[in-house]
Design goal:
Elements (H helix, E strand, L loop, with lengths): L8 E5 L6 H11 L2 E5 H10 L3 H11 L6 H12 L6 E5 L5 H13 L6 E6 L2 H9 L1 E4 L4 E4 L26 H22 L3 E2 L2 E2 L1 E5 L3 H22 L2
Parallel strand pairs: 1-3, 1-4, 2-3, 4-9
Antiparallel strand pairs: 5-6, 7-8
Length: 234
């Protein structure tokens, strides 16, 4: 069965710490889009102290990535309940091999990706963010002492519980992750390069130092793509 593109199926490419999570939250607030966040799924497993969570934590502390088959299982389960809905996949795929696996999974369901946002933020900006980032692990809420501080230092705004650092929020570990990201992201961009759906470019790049700088362009793009898809299939 040929893929259907009547609903928005989007991925966001961008280095860890580039602001993907914030942009996705804003997309959710502005549009009827559901999110499948691989990082959030993995962190939930860590907090719940599952076997997968223990495995994930070990990889994260070493600045390494989980095996592809583990991530694909998580993704497949989440996407199975979102057929016919707008969604954005965050944190997967990370390389060309994973992209091909995702293509096969979606095609088996008669759907396909129709928007790929590529975020470009300087590494120096990202490393500064990481040094100042703290999280509320149970909820996934993220704070930054530079531009998004908690109301009470060291405490979550909603629950008042203590904030913590992610296991991999270390500049040295993160520097290694950034190098790995750039290498793998190149294979992703090569995989998706020049691809179109309905005459529309699938890959669009947004460059900037801050989320506030990038967001207006992302918002306009997502709004336009949803309207275009609706018009094509009305």
């Amino acid at each position: 069965m040929a893929p259907s593109f009547s609903s928005l199926r989007m991925i966001i490419l961008g280095a860890p710490g580039s602001g993907k999570g914030t942009l996705i939250s804003r997309c959710q607030a502005a549009f009827p889009i559901r999110t499948v966040g691989v990082g959030d799924l993995l962190r939930a497993q860590i907090v719940q102290k599952t076997a997968l969570g223990a495995q994930a934590e070990g990889f994260m502390k070493r600045g390494a990535l989980l095996p592809d088959e583990v991530i694909l299982q998580l993704v497949e389960k989440e996407l199975s309940v979102l057929e016919g809905k707008h969604w954005v996949l965050d944190g997967y795929p990370r390389n060309g091999s994973q992209a091909r696996s995702l293509d096969s999974l979606l095609q088996s369901r008669g759907v396909g990706l129709n928007l790929i946002l590529n975020l470009v933020v300087p590494d120096s900006v990202i490393l500064d963010r990481i040094e100042n980032r703290w999280i509320h692990a149970p909820s996934g809420r993220v704070y930054n002492h530079t531009f998004n501080p908690p109301k009470v230092q060291g405490r979550d705004d909603v629950t008042g519980e203590s904030l913590t650092k992610r296991p991999d929020d270390d500049v040295n570990i993160f520097g290694k992750r950034l190098k790995d990201f750039h290498k793998e992201n190149k294979t992703l961009l090569e995989h998706y390069a020049g691809s179109k759906v309905g005459g529309l470019e699938r890959v669009l790049t947004f460059t900037g130092n801050t989320t506030d700088e990038i967001w207006p362009h992302v918002k306009e793009t997502v709004k336009g793509r949803i309207e275009e898809l609706k018009g094509q299939h009305s």
